[in-house]
Amino acid sequence: TQAGGLKAAKPGDNSKDVSVQRVLNEETLVSAAQKVKEAGRDFTYFIVVLVGIGVTGGLFYVIFKELFSSSSPNKIYGDALEKCRSHPEIIGVFGDSIKGYGEATRRGRRQHVSHVEYVKDGLKHMRLKFYIEGTESGKQGTVHVEVKENLETGRFEVRYIFVDVETYPRRTIVIEDNR
């Protein structure tokens, strides 16, 4: 016989049959324990992957809601800034290239658009305030926007957009007024 192999048992010799049987049972027990261990590890990996998919889905939902929803302050800010850029009186005061920015943070970034959300008469309202500058030197303005929810469409509609020009002579330019 070869090394490591099993010898053929003689029909009258029961001791070898028992030893071969015992070796097979031990291999079966070890493989069953390994299967349970692998199944537990696979289940743990499955849970980790499931949690990862849940967290990723949550992040995509928040990003989509903030950037593409009609009710997000950033979307309303972008729409109001475009209306300011296309308004002829604003172009006449500030110049062609108009940029908008929000409140300054401690790090000097001006990306945060100040907004307040409230409910009045059962309708959601939002007020925003941001700033604009143009190519004309020293010309700055503060834009005030208010929107309210339309119950039929569920979207926010503009109530008003005003621009306070902060240079002499001080004046207010009305972009849109639907009050």
TrEMBL record:
Q: May I have one GO cellular component term?
A: TIM23 mitochondrial import inner membrane translocase complex
Entry-linked InterPro entries? Tim21, Tim21_IMS_sf
Task: Please state where this protein is localized.
Answer: Mitochondrion inner membrane; Mitochondrion membrane
From the Swiss-Prot or TrEMBL record, give the protein name: Mitochondrial import inner membrane translocase subunit Tim21
Q: Which family does it belong to?
A: Belongs to the TIM21 family.
* Spans through the membrane: 43-64
Q: How does it sit in the membrane?
A: Single-pass membrane protein
Function, please?
Essential component of the TIM23 complex, a complex that mediates the translocation of transit peptide-containing proteins across the mitochondrial inner membrane.
Output the Gene3D superfamilies linked to this UniProt entry. Answer: Mitochondrial import inner membrane translocase subunit Tim21
Q: Provide the assembly information.
A: Component of the TIM23 complex.
Q: Tell me a GO biological process for this protein.
A: protein import into mitochondrial matrix
Key words, A-Z: Membrane, Mitochondrion, Mitochondrion inner membrane, Protein transport, Transit peptide, Translocation, Transmembrane, Transmembrane helix, Transport
Key word Transmembrane present: yes
